[in-house]
Amino acid sequence: xxxxxxxxxDAPFTPRTVMLGGKAAPGYHMAKKIxxxxxxxxxxxxxxxxxxxxxxxxxxxxxxxxxxxxxIPAADLSEQISTxxxxxSGTGNMKFKLNGALTIGTxxxxxxxxxxxxxxxxxxxxxxxxxxxxxxxxxxxxxxxxYMCNEELRExxxxxxxxxxxxxxxxxxxxxxxxxxxxx
Length: 184
Known about the structure:
This protein is an alpha/beta fold and 184 residues long. It has a domain at 142-184. 46% of the residues lie in helices and 13% in strands. The protein contains 9 helices and 5 strands; from the N terminus they run H-E-H-E-H-E-H-E-H-E-H-H-H-H. The strands form 2 sheets. It has a 3-stranded parallel sheet, with helices on one face. The chain is globular.
């Protein structure tokens, strides 16, 4: 969204505020780096003149129950987008749903249970199902192919590599981009 606004600052965009929450275990290096990336993205996006009030990013530090009690009732949308079969999305999204938020996500984790109980028609499910993910992996899935074919994705990953979001340490997020390109 940031890049779309930057490329066409005069186009009409619906203003959005994106809130991300999380925390990392002390030894989880990649999670800590992703949290740093979120904070750097927020700093860049929230202070960009072209973006203005059309996009804001807020990272909720040390996301836990106390903070969730404030955020969940105010949310309009809950995104639960793990790759099917890789990680349960937990019960947080159930709490969002019970408080009226729309759920958009993959058919993974708690989303599976929610779809069974309330019907897929009451959620916005997208992406591959578990058996489709497994089949894609058997076919020697190469995420770099998507990088080569999708200009927006390529630009975003290049920004991670070239220091756009961390000019004081340009290579800091390169391993995140490489993980997405070669492993995810």
